[in-house]
Automatic annotation (TrEMBL):
Transmembrane segments: none annotated. Residues 11-192 form the FAD-dependent urate hydroxylase HpyO/Asp monooxygenase CreE-like FAD/NAD(P)-binding domain. Pfam families: NAD_binding_9 (PF13454). It comes from Pseudoalteromonas luteoviolacea NCIMB 1942. This is FAD-dependent urate hydroxylase HpyO/Asp monooxygenase CreE-like FAD/NAD(P)-binding domain-containing protein. It comes from the Bacteria.
Length: 579
């Protein structure tokens, strides 16, 4: 039984979300001046390391796998990633020069490196930052009397509400025996999952481009079969993961750069010379290239929030109204040159033509980025009707993501170089054919274009990103929590948006079903943010949103200690501490 005096918090998953939660909990506890000696924080993570999680894991990535945001937009708080790079500049230049050179190929001596807050650094470097800050904040917590326990290489298998708290069952990977511990509060920060099982396919298909080591051994096998022949490798998905897959496949070759550091050509080696890489997606284009934000005086999308916009327009805005406002905003600012149609159907005959245009950083793209990003940040998705949400998810989200989440210029230049070296080509699969890619025992065929053409592939890498359908979540923990009613899939009328149900729009507290009364209620124990939660993809998949969520959960947990230890203490007093 748990001691009544000790408050026990558990963070499940220590990727960016779990790390942000730990850092902000420690910060807020210290600021609260509470006696921390009766607080225990337990972290449970199935990887060896705490901090990087899936997208930033040094061991699973290549230096060429870049963050899709500039340094100043990626931090646990303030401009801390950049500050950390500056603090550790000399040490990093010595220890991980490859993670610096890739972003600054023009730098002759890496010892002279000056971190650039506008640059895109490798995700592995961001992972090292997260790992370092995780360790540092654990030390700070200990110095302030908190008890900390970390379980790594350890998977949480199940959980259940009890009268004493939330009982979590977890197991070390090498052990057959599970342990159960009871906590006052639990954060589920379990992040990304892959619902495609490798066992569904034979070894011609790779179900994820990560980790790099797996892709590399897969590629080696592909190249060994029928040694002298050209290998046609298809990549399904042209977003950031698809680009990572392409860069992984050509890792043994070399990009050449001009004196400004731009990638100008690709020099193939004995392996890459045999490759024909075909990038496939429904729209057939890569995301736009990220440029500096422009100042734009909004004329139609004038308000900061969607709620205010509806108030101003004096009516409920439908999905079509939103598309119309985007169209008007774009047309007005571009004197009619671009509108929604050009966003959904980029006027280019190929991905290469569009990449070449994007790489010149045209004003049009900066405008589209600005407008689409503003609309997403207005959080309009939550106000759509279920049938509109369904339509948005199936056919429109792709256009928003492709334009609102652009790629670094360096990646675009590398893709152009690969096209020009004759190694890369692209295919537009279209939105109509669900089975454009057919994998049979004897063949792998991609059907595309009008009139229809066919492409026979030797290998296929699935890199189309995250499916949010909870019914296909592969982990026992999530399956079991949903089966027990401790979590609920978020459903609106009959449409399941993907992700779990939370209390209201701005809370991260999970909803549950009481097993006795079948009533839906707020879980007294569980919180969650990140990929597992509803609307994440549409509203909160950027670093600052994770930080905001971590601060909110930390605030709830500190509040819980106040309630437990000083029930007479009002929340307003506590809020003053965190202000
Ligand atoms: C390829 C890729 C690139 C991205 N690049 C960027 C970028 O450049 N910039 C940006 O802002 N965003 C980026 N994102 C978005 C990304 O979602 C967030 O930045 C963030 O890293 C998500 O962190 P997380 O902690 O929620 O999830 P994750 O990083 O997935 O971490 C979850 C952790 O939980 C652990 N875990 C899961 N289940 C269990 C269990 N049952 N028991 C114990 N441990 C468990 C996992 O091992 C993992 O370490 C990227 C996403 C992807 C997929």
């Amino acid at each position: 039984m748990q001691s009544k005096n000790i408050t026990k918090f558990c963070i499940v998953g220590t990727g960016f979300s779990g790390t942000a939660a730990l850092v902000h909990l420690v910060k807020q506890l210290i600021a609260s001046k509470l006696d921390c000696r009766n607080i225990e924080v337990v972290t449970i993570e199935q990887r060896q390391d705490n901090g990087p999680g899936h997208p930033y894991c040094n061991e699973e990535l290549l230096p060429t796998h870049l963050c899709n945001n500039q340094t100043y937009m990626m931090a646990l708080f303030d401009n801390d990633f950049y500050d950390w790079l500056c603090e550790r500049r000399t040490e990093l230049a010595k220890k991980v020069p490859d993670l610096i050179k890739v972003t600054h190929p023009d730098l002759e001596d890496v010892a002279l490196w000056q971190p650039d807050q506008d640059a895109f650094y490798p995700r592995a470097l961001f992972g090292l930052y997260l790992k370092a800050r995780f360790t540092q904040y654990c030390l700070v917590a200990k110095e302030n009397g908190m008890r900390l326990r970390h379980f790594n290489d350890c998977q949480v298998l199940d959980g259940q509400s009890t009268e004493e708290g939330f009982a979590l069952q977890f197991r070390q990977s090498a052990s057959l025996n599970a342990t159960t511990q009871v906590f006052d509060k639990v954060l589920l920060a379990t992040g990304h999952w892959n619902s495609i099982k490798q066992s569904q396919y034979d070894d011609r298909v790779l179900t994820s481009p990560y980790p790099y080591s797996r892709l590399n051994s897969w590629l080696t096998k592909q190249l060994q079969q029928g040694k002298e022949t050209t290998k046609h490798i298809c990549i399904k998905g042209m977003g950031p993961s698809g680009i990572d897959a392409i860069l992984s496949l050509v890792e043994s070759g070399q990009f050449s750069h001009n004196t400004q550091g731009d990638a100008t050509a690709f020099i193939a080696d004995e392996h890459t010379i045999k490759l024909k890489i075909h990038a496939l997606s429904r729209c057939g284009f890569f995301p736009a290239v990220r440029d500096k934000r422009i100042e734009h005086q909004f004329k139609y999308l004038t308000e900061e929030t969607f709620f205010d916009l509806e108030q101003k327009q004096g009516k409920r805005l439908t999905l079509d109204d939103i598309l119309l406002l985007i169209d008007k905003e774009l047309k007005d600012a571009s004197e009619g040159a671009i509108g929604w149609h050009e966003v959904a159907h980029p006027p280019f005959s190929s991905a290469l033509e569009k990449l070449k245009y994007d790489a010149t950083l045209p004003q049009d793209n900066a405008l589209i980025h600005n407008v689409l990003l503003r609309v997403r940040r207005m959080k309009f998705y939550r106000y759509l009707k279920p049938d509109e949400k369904q339509r948005y998810d199936s056919v429109l989200d792709t256009h928003f993501i492709r334009t609102a989440v652009p790629i670094p210029l360096l990646n675009a230049q590398k893709l152009i170089a690969l096209f020009e070296a004759g190694i890369l080509s692209s295919c537009q699969l279209g939105y109509e054919h669900k089975d454009a890619i057919k994998v049979t025992k004897t063949d792998m065929v991609v059907t595309f274009g009008q009139p229809q053409k066919q492409l026979h592939a030797d290998g296929l890498i699935l890199a189309a990103g995250q499916s949010f359908k909870l019914a296909r979540h592969p982990d026992n923990l999530v399956k079991s929590l949903i089966a027990r009613g401790e979590l609920r899939p978020h459903t609106e009328q009959n449409y399941q948006t993907g992700g779990i149900q939370l209390l209201g729009y701005e809370s991260y507290r999970a909803m549950r079903t009481d097993p006795n009364t079948q009533q839906v209620q707020v879980s007294p124990y569980l919180s969650s943010f990140g990929v597992l939660t509803r609307y994440w993809q549409n509203e909160r998949n950027f670093a600052a949103a994770f930080v905001e969520a971590a601060q909110s959960v930390a605030h709830d947990w500190v509040d819980h200690i106040y309630q437990k230890t000083m029930p007479q203490h009002s929340r307003t007093d506590q809020d003053k501490v965190h202000a």
